[in-house]
């Protein structure tokens, strides 16, 4: 099964910006999520891009992100109303 079927691609720059806005350090966020500090760093610089849905939702919760689309690397397709 391809990795894209069960993972979510994270926008690293958005992750870093939101983390810093919330006053969280890489170490603090990693500890709260139960992952290694280097994993968060890899996500932020883009050398790793995909996370499990569970980790994605935990990131959103830890960073107080109300709209889960804020950390997505690719925006979901919007449905346009027909004219």
From TrEMBL:
Q: What SMART domains would the database entry show?
A: HTH_XRE (SM00530)
Q: Outline the extent of the HTH cro/C1-type domain.
A: 15-71
Q: Which InterPro entries does the entry mention?
A: Cro/C1-type_HTH, Lambda_DNA-bd_dom_sf
Q: Which SUPFAM superfamilies match?
A: lambda repressor-like DNA-binding domains
Indicate what this protein is called per its UniProt record.
Helix-turn-helix domain-containing protein
Source organism of this protein record = Nocardioides plantarum
């Amino acid at each position: 099964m391809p990795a894209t079927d069960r993972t979510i691609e994270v926008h690293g720059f958005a992750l870093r910006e939101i983390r810093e806005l919330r006053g969280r350090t890489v170490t603090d966020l990693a500890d709260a999520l139960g992952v290694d500090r280097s994993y968060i760093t890899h996500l932020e610089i883009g050398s790793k891009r995909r996370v499990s849905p569970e980790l994605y939702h935990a990131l959103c919760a830890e960073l107080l992100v109300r709209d889960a689309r804020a950390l997505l690397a690719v925006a979901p397709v919007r449905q346009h109303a027909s004219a």
